[in-house]
Design goal:
With 85 residues, this protein is α/β, with parallel strands linked by helices. The protein has 4 helices and 3 strands. A 3-stranded parallel β-sheet has the order 1-2-3, covered by helices on one side. Helix 1 runs parallel beside helix 2. It is globular.
């Protein structure tokens, strides 16, 4: 899977939620998110990534992520923070 594949699948199908890694080959997760948001796709997106710098977190949220979780993570946090309504 790479970022180009992600954009293709996200634009071709409807999903309840999207998990993205910032470190995808090809288009990185930030580019994927920016592109899908520009296409008015409002599906909730969570980054689940090892990139833990404040700049990365701010970039992900500024591009439209609903949450940003750094690996390793507690499963409890994942399930509490990303509940779909």
């Amino acid at each position: 899977f790479n970022g180009n594949d992600a954009v293709y699948y996200i634009t071709e199908e409807s999903y309840d939620a999207i998990l993205l890694d910032a470190m995808l080959p090809g288009k990185d997760g930030f580019e994927v998110l920016k592109e899908i948001r520009s296409q008015k796709i409002e599906t909730p997106v969570m980054f689940l990534t090892a990139r833990d710098q404040t700049e990365d977190i701010v970039t992900g949220l500024d591009f439209g992520a609903d949450d940003y979780v750094v690996k390793p993570f507690l499963l409890r946090r994942f399930s509490q923070d990303f509940v779909l309504s």
